[in-house]
Amino acid sequence: MRYLVSVIDDKDNPGSTDRGPAINAFNERLIAEGHWVFSGGLADTGAATVVDNRGEQAVFSDGPFVESKEYLAGVWVWEAPDLDVALRLAAEASEVCDRKIEVRPFL
Amino acid sequence: MSDVAEAVTRAHHDEWARVVAALTRRFGDLDIAEEAAAEAFATAVERWPADGVPPNPGAWLTTTANRRAIDRLRRESKRDDKHREAQMTYGHPPEPAGAIDDDRLRLIFTCCHPALAMEARVALTLRMVGGLTVPEIARAFLVRGTAMEQRITRAKAKIKAARIPCRMPSADDLPDRVSGVLAVLFLVFNEGYLASGPGAGPVRHDLTTEAIRLTRLIRALLPQDGEVAGLLALMLLTEARRAARVSADGELVALDEQDRGAWDAELIAEGHRLVRERLAAAAAGAAPGRYQILAAINAVHTSARDIRDTDWSQILALYDQLVRLDPSPIIALNRAVAVAELDGPEVALAIVDRLAEALAGYHAYHATRADLLRRLGRSRQSRAAYDRAIELAGNTGETAYLTRRRAQLR
């Protein structure tokens, strides 16, 4: 079972910026335990571009698809046998990243 | 009710949770388990009048439900092989020896999973474990039936999509998972204590017994948990009054009119032992949670040989402690009953009236008000409050009680 694990930051109350080494160590463990599929931190939402080509021609707009106080700061894809395992890892991930985590299953 | 109809009703009470839990374990899918169980009971209603009630209704129902589930999976496998594969491989291997092996307990932990909203946990447990119908659950929680149906459907969909497992939680997760289960079991107990179905008797002994049975299991697993002990004591001290709580003609009997000789001395002794155990822990510095305080309140009630011997000041002190922990309007309403005994109905009525907005749809609010107004001699207002309470009360015994009290107004 695969889960998309989103790291959520808060513009008004951002998590600390010195989490890199701890996250690296956590990733090593995820890999060793067979949970790690993918991970990556994301550039600021200001660097996002939304593309809409449902009409006659593609429309490009600057910025994220939704402006909000909370935003996606990074993602993981994990392999886990069930939600209990994913939630236990996510509880650790939240502490390691100093940010909120959303766990969402893939179809 | 005919013998067969009665057998179906009894089988539903006795076997529903077992059938759903066994199927959930086998097929790893609540939806399939619930639907197959419901179909098996529908088949029983159809077939038992002609074929007779089988010698072992539980086994008959489980076998029938299993067949229905397999039929459904076969139908679906033709449409979607991948889906079928997921269903078939999802079942879990047996737990290692030593773990509590109870399908229903496992099912409860799934229904009470922390990834589900609290409301969904309660609704799901009552549906899947309690076997209550959606309208009965909706009534218990003062919401519309369609909203409750949606809540249950959404919860089942999440369990499936996110793969919430049907098994005992790990030792690390257990304490947190237990407090979620206790909240749900307390609500199940309350549904049994004050049954809401129009066809049901005033007390659904099966639900109170089931809640107590499962709470005892959790107590055996977590003997140090104060709230588990507190909840068990609370249930036992409430259950002990069951025989005295309903009259021969099915009317609820209020605490002040109960025959205290009919209380179950053994259950009271067991409940008091648990409360004493928690009082000792509190004296040693453990802060009591709400179930322990509620149990202590019930211990005070069950210690009085006569209603006039009730130590109301101790009860009020316990309610004050409870309000600090849980400032909900229902707790405030119950506290007002103790206030009425100590400071008189007028003071209590002022407190109750402040809860009007929050509790306008709650029968006990109107019943409490009616009683206070009656004691103040304000008969016309008391009658109106009784009218409203009777309108809202779903319990047959309570309706009978309220109707009699209204008729006694001058």
From TrEMBL, chain A:
Source taxon at top rank: Bacteria
Family matches, as InterPro entries: Dimeric_a/b-barrel, YCII
Gene3D superfamilies: Dimeric alpha+beta barrel
Domain YCII-related: 1-103
Family per record: Belongs to the YciI family.
Protein name (Swiss-Prot/TrEMBL): YCII-related domain-containing protein
Source organism of the structure: Planobispora longispora
Organism lineage string: Bacteria, Bacillati, Actinomycetota, Actinomycetes, Streptosporangiales
From TrEMBL, chain B:
Gene Ontology molecular-function annotations: DNA binding; sigma factor activity
Protein's name according to its UniProt entry: RNA polymerase subunit sigma-24
One GO term of the biological process aspect: DNA-templated transcription initiation
Region (Disordered): 76-96
Stretches assigned to the RNA polymerase sigma factor 70 region 4 type domain: 108-159
PANTHER family xref list: BLL6612 PROTEIN, BLL6612 PROTEIN-RELATED
Stretches assigned to the DUF6596 domain: 177-277
Lineage: Bacteria, Bacillati, Actinomycetota, Actinomycetes, Streptosporangiales
Domain RNA polymerase sigma-70 region: 18-78
Biased composition range(s): Basic and acidic residues: 76-86
Gene3D superfamilies associated with the record: 1.10.1740.10, Tetratricopeptide repeat domain, Winged helix-like DNA-binding domain superfamily/Winged helix DNA-binding domain
Matches recorded under InterPro entries: DUF6596 (IPR046531), RNA_pol_sigma70_r2 (IPR007627), RNA_pol_sigma70_r4_t2 (IPR013249), RNA_pol_sigma_r2 (IPR013325), RNA_pol_sigma_r3/r4-like (IPR013324), TPR-like_helical_dom_sf (IPR011990), WH-like_DNA-bd_sf (IPR036388)
Source species of the chain: Planobispora longispora
Keyword annotations of the record: Sigma factor, Transcription, Transcription regulation
The organism's place on the tree of life at top rank: Bacteria
Stated family: Belongs to the sigma-70 factor family. ECF subfamily.
SUPFAM superfamilies assigned to the protein according to its UniProt record, in alphabetical order: Sigma2 domain of RNA polymerase sigma factors, Sigma3 and sigma4 domains of RNA polymerase sigma factors, TPR-like
